[in-house]
Amino acid sequence: MYKGKTILGLVLARGGSKGLPGKNIRPLFGKPLIAWTIERALASTYLDKVIVNTDDRKIADISEKYGAEIPFMRPKRLATDNAKSMDVVLHTINWIEKNNKPYDLVMLLQPTSPLRKTEDIDNSIKLLFNKEALSIVSVCETEHHPYWSNKLPEDKCMKDFIDKKVINKNRQELPVFYRLNGAIYLTYWDYFKKHKTFLGRETFAYVMPKERSIDIDEEIDINLAEIMINKIKNGGKSEIL
User: Fewer CB in a 10 Å sphere around the end CB: N or C, the chain?
Assistant: First the structure.
């Protein structure tokens, strides 16, 4: 609870990942991927409860082992490759309202962002109130500047690939761009019910460093996350571990 408002921490973890099979429970530095998110969420000063929404019994068992609650199993229609996360969040909200007391806010925490800190969770909540915002979404600086990106025609000709206005500029001369990093989505309960999104005119960015913004989607991301964790561990720091 923060400033009298109750906050639900919601972790979405589907069992049928095809790009990286078993992704949400893949071992990452000695524990399942989802455990990193659960532990950070449970350590939050302000989250009142942490639940995992999953269709997979193994994910549910592991999540309960690490302290999260599994109030129900996700229906199959919301566990397909085409199912949208926003529909799953809305289903969770509706289930809770039918079976329990609703919360004032909901924070979506994806298990594929294992390097976010508890500090990020709590600071994003503070930011929402400080900004008098309706929602907060985490971002980080883009790794590759979008001005150096474009579509290619079928013949792969790069004649107009880069705008002539920026073709000879250094990166430092270009405006800073940010991307969604998938780590934190926070909004008011009723706002999400009405708009079915975390993004809107009164959404503000919570900026995270790139080293805490790794999003696990492929095997190389697991390797990169382990390198980052190992580096911090060997350096004697405690930002993540």
Answer: C
| pLDDT tens per residue across span 9-41 | 999 999 977 778 899 999 999 999 999 999 999
Specify the amino acid at residue 203.
T
Please report the domains of the chain, with CATH numbers, ordered by start residue. 7-144+177-234 (3.90.550.10)
Question: Which run of H or E residues covers position 51?
Answer: strand 49-53
The CA distances from residue 31 to 24, 26, 37, 168, in Å, are: 11, 8, 11, 46
CB 105 within 8 A of CB 188: yes
pLDDT in tens, 192-231: 999 999 999 999 999 999 999 999 998 889 889 998 888 8
Q: Which pTM was predicted?
A: 0.91
Tell how many helices (H) and how many strands (E) occur in the chain.
6, 8
How open is the CA angle 68-46-104, to the nearest 5 degrees? 90
Are the C-beta atoms of 47 and 65 separated by less than 8 Å?
A: no
